[in-house]
Amino acid sequence: MFSLNQSVLVRGAAGEPIPSPYRGLQKLEVEFRRGDFSVVCAGGGTGKSLMALFLATWSNVPTLYVSADSTAATQLSRATAMITGDSAREVKKALVADDGSFAAYEAALAKRWWLRFNYQARPTPKDIELHLECYREVFGCYPHLVVIDNITNVDGGGSSNAEEYTFGLEGLCDYFNEMARETGAHVMAMHHVVGEYSSGIKPIPLDGVKGKIGRVPSVVLTIHAEVDGMQGRTLHISPVKNREGFTDPSGETYASFEVNTSNLQITDLDEEVF
After folding, report:
1. CB neighbourhood size of 173 (10 A)
2. What is the torsional sign of CA 68, 73, 74, 79?
3. Quick check: 66 and 128 in contact, CB under 8 A?
4. Could you read off the pLDDT of 3-25 as tens digits, one per residue?
5. C-alpha–C-alpha distance, residues 17 and 199, integer Å
6. Residues 37-93: tens digit of each pLDDT
7. Separation of alpha carbons 268 and 56, rounded Å
8. Where are the domains of the chain?
9. At the topology level of CATH, where does 35-221 sit?
10. HEC per residue, 203-267
11. Does the pLDDT of residue 164 top 70, yes or no?
């Protein structure tokens, strides 16, 4: 039991924002704070994993990325392109060529020593806890950012019907929220949306989140995209829940970001947020 003044001493790093490359979200008062839990939702292939990986590579903080949804080859190719600016396709060719050409990237990748991955397809909460403790043992601190990609890939014990499925998701949200509190990390989980919004081409409201899990997270973001026909892509990120700032549950207010589909750089568009 703590007084308000004592709470200053026990808060630790809670509330400290993770450095973010997404200035448009900052204009909408969206910050990824340590000790908090957020959920990023979009249809399959829209760009939620790219958004999370770009944050992980450029936030420059200790990071554990639980990549259940993507293989090591995919994440390594994407991250190398993001870091070096080279084409992700050419990076992938060098990676699979097995002729030593990928060694040219090793020095650049070594500078991101603080970024570590778990590639289990169905990790359990105990698996994630083990990796957190290993991270602390090696580096002397817990990660400041933990990415769970995707939350439905985490083996929470299984379910036999829709009601238990929703309860299982809420239980995992409670678990990751507690993880954020206990470790002082910002825990960000990727998640899916209901079928009506799975195409990813229109704004997604809070009630479009699959399983209706908006109760626990401090921040819920939804992403829809535009494709211009010339391989260009624009991501629109909507704060449909935000305890610390602006929120629009309709999803109609968003910050926009241009994705270079060659080297996977994500940059703010100059226009004002909508």
Report:
1. 22
2. positive
3. yes
4. 545 455 545 556 899 999 999 99
5. 32
6. 999 999 999 999 999 999 999 999 999 999 999 999 999 999 999 999 999 999 999
7. 17
8. 35-221
9. Rossmann fold (3.40.50)
10. CCCHHHECCCCCCCCCEEEEEEEEECCCCCEEEEEEEEEECCCCCCCCCCCCEEEEECCCCCCEE
11. no
3-state percent breakdown (helix, strand, coil) of the chain, nearest 5: 35, 20, 40
Integer Cα distance of 186 and 163 in angstroms:
28
Is 190 buried (19+), middle (13-18) or exposed (0-12) by CB count in 10 A?
A: buried
Residues 87, 91, 92, 97, CA torsion sign: positive
Tell which wins on pLDDT, 147 or 171: 147
Name the one residue in this structure whose structure tokens are 């909508």: 274
In this structure, are residues 219 and 243 in contact, taking their beta carbons and an 8 Å threshold? yes
Q: First vs last Cα of the chain: how many Å apart? A: 44
Amino acid at 203: P
> Model's pTM, two decimal places?
0.90
Residues 11 and 3: their CA atoms lie apart, in Å, by: 12
pLDDT of 126 over the 80 cut: yes
Owner of token pair 């409670």 = 174
Structure tokens at 99: 């002729």
Considering Cα of 51, then 55, then 57, then 62, what sign does the dihedral take? negative
